[in-house]
Amino acid sequence: MKIRVRAALFLAALFSFSAGLSVAAPKPLPLFDTHVHYSRDAWGVFAPAQILKILAAAGVKRALVSSTPDEGTLKLHRAAPGRIVPILRPYRTRADVSGWTRSQEVFEYLSKRIGRGIYKGIGEFHILDEAGANTPQIKGLVRIAVRRNIVLQVHSGAGPVRALFAHHPKLKILWAHAGMSEPPEVVGRAMDKYKNLWADVSFRAGDIAPGGKLDPAWRALLMRHSDRFFCGTDTYITERWSFYGDLVAEHRVWLRQLPREVAEKIAYRNAVRLFGRGYAAEFSE
Questions:
Q1: Rg (CA), the chain
Q2: Entry pTM
Q3: Which CATH number fits domain 31-284: 3.65.10.10, 3.20.20.140, 3.40.50.720, 1.10.630.10?
Q4: Span 151-162, pLDDT tens digits
Q5: Domain extents in the chain
Q6: Distance of CA 113 to the CA centre of its chain
Q7: What confidence tens digit (pLDDT) does each residue in 88-115 have?
Q8: Where are the beta strands (DSSP E) in 159-284?
Q9: Is 70 exceeded by the pLDDT of residue 18?
Q10: Is 235:36 a contact under the CB 8 Å cutoff?
């Protein structure tokens, strides 16, 4: 009888201790996802209301959205103007992906549409090499971005980033995927040189934390430039919306291995600072 009482007391104490730990544990970080697409193929599968529920379930309070065509972004923005931060993609259709950097028609489309005044940037767009970053149309795009004080979200290697900054020192670049395949030392050198360079780390969770363990070189880089990294998921195909929560969870794994202050910066504070304090309200709740 005494053994049963002791066992019961032990289990009660253990439960009490575990409950105390759960109460003391920090809340999951809210996220500002800085790489989202809601393109035509996704419209017939996920209505705007469903997309908003997916974001909420993953703890994503704000999302930087661009789409092909732009109407996808506008659909989401109309549904939740406080949650969706729109940027303007050059691609009206998939056909624009090839050769858009030399297309005067695309440039005039962007020049006119950006006048709506709702967009916080232009992108995401692809530039394959430095020659593609030196066309008259791209130089014109840089002038528009500087004049309006908005970012260019660029999917490229380090070469085109250098070429773009050579056009104007005040340009702001959001480097998609932190260069996709660029190693941390290359990303670090670029960030050391260009103070207006930020990077989202969509598609880089496996590099940042292979096997779930934070890589030392990436940790050093994230700590050194903790003010200029963002989380992102890149829903470039419809299927990625089906496991969106898993994409966010991949980032939470390595964020938990950073000091809380640094993790908060990367999860949402940096994006709020770049895109405007008006997006901070929900994160303070």
A1: 21
A2: 0.89
A3: 3.20.20.140
A4: 999 999 999 999
A5: 31-284
A6: 23
A7: 999 999 999 989 999 999 999 999 999 9
A8: 172-175, 197-200, 229-230
A9: no
A10: yes
